[in-house]
Each structure stands twice: as structure tokens, then as C-alpha cells.
Amino acid sequence: MNEWIQTWHEAVTTTLGLFWMALWAFGLGYLVSSMIQVFVTRKRMKQSMGDAGAKSVFLGTFFGFISSSCSFAALATTRALFTKGAGLIPSLAFLLASTNLVVELGIVIAIFLGWQFVVGEYVGGVLACC
């Protein structure tokens, strides 16, 4: 019985630790999404990312690159961009960049796999966005 309690305690501790480590990504992503919904006007969004041109795709890719890598939060932010008037292609570029081109993912890949894999990740992510 004591072994079962110890195993259960370890499982709960691990679960709470992983939840706490992922919480910042959720929070940041939903914060960005809510800020877009509140502070960005539809007119401004259409001017910046309303068409499928190179500038709009670049902005979507850039903002995705510097944003959170949490898939749920990235999806919420993409929806906020699209709802506010961003084009489909720039919105999808944001979504792909926010899950494939994130800075922290590059750091982890560099630590465990080396710089060559970071270059491959970013080149592949840019090709996927374009």
C-alpha cells in the first residue's frame, strides 16, 4: 500500500509540474488573443494583414515566430486575427510559424540536437509558411 501511495504522489507531482511549466504558454497566447480582440481595429488589421501579399505573410510569420508555441493558444490567436480582418493566408502563416518557428523550440533543438537541426527546423518552417 505504501508503494502505491508513493507512486500516486509521484504521478500527481509530475502532472502538476508539467501543467505549471505549460501554463505560461497558454496564458501568453490567450493574452495576445484577447489583446488583438480588444485593441486592434478591423480597419487596421485589414491594412496590415488583409491581403495575401508578401508583406502580410511576412507579418504573420514574424508575429508567429515571436509568439507562444502552445497550439491551443496559437489557434485562438489565429482565430482572433482572422475575425479582425486578416486574410486567410497571413493567418495560416501565423499559425504555422507560431507552432514551427518559435524561438524556444530552436533553443531546445540546439541544446539536444545541434545547430544544424535548428537551421533545418527554421528553413522547413519558412517553406511551410510560404
Brief characterization of the structure:
The protein has about 130 residues and is mainly α. It has seven helices and no strands.
Structure description:
The protein has helices at residues 2-39, 42-49, 54-65, 71-83, 88-100, 103-112, 115-129. It has one domain (2-129). It contains 7 helices and no strands. The model has no long low-confidence stretch (mean pLDDT 85). The N and C termini lie far apart (57 Å). Helix 1 (2-39) runs parallel beside helix 4 and helix 4 runs antiparallel to helix 5. 84% of the residues lie in helices and 0% in strands. It is an all-alpha fold and 130 residues long.
Please give the radius of gyration in angstroms: 18 Å
Q: How would you characterize the largest beta sheet? A: none
Poorly predicted spans:
none
Structural class of the helix and strand makeup? mainly alpha
* Count of individual beta strands: 0
What is the percent of helical residues? over 70%
Q: Termini, distance in Å?
A: 57 Å
Strand residues, percent: under 5%
Mean pLDDT over the full residue set: 85
Shape: flat
In DSSP terms, counting alpha (H) and pi (I) runs of 4 or more, how many helices?
7
Domain tally = 1
Mind sketching the topology for me?
Layout: H1 2-39, H2 42-49, H3 54-65, H4 71-83, H5 88-100, H6 103-112, H7 115-129
Helix pairs in contact: 1-4, 3-5, 4-5, 5-7, 6-7
Task: List key phrases describing it.
130 residues, mainly alpha
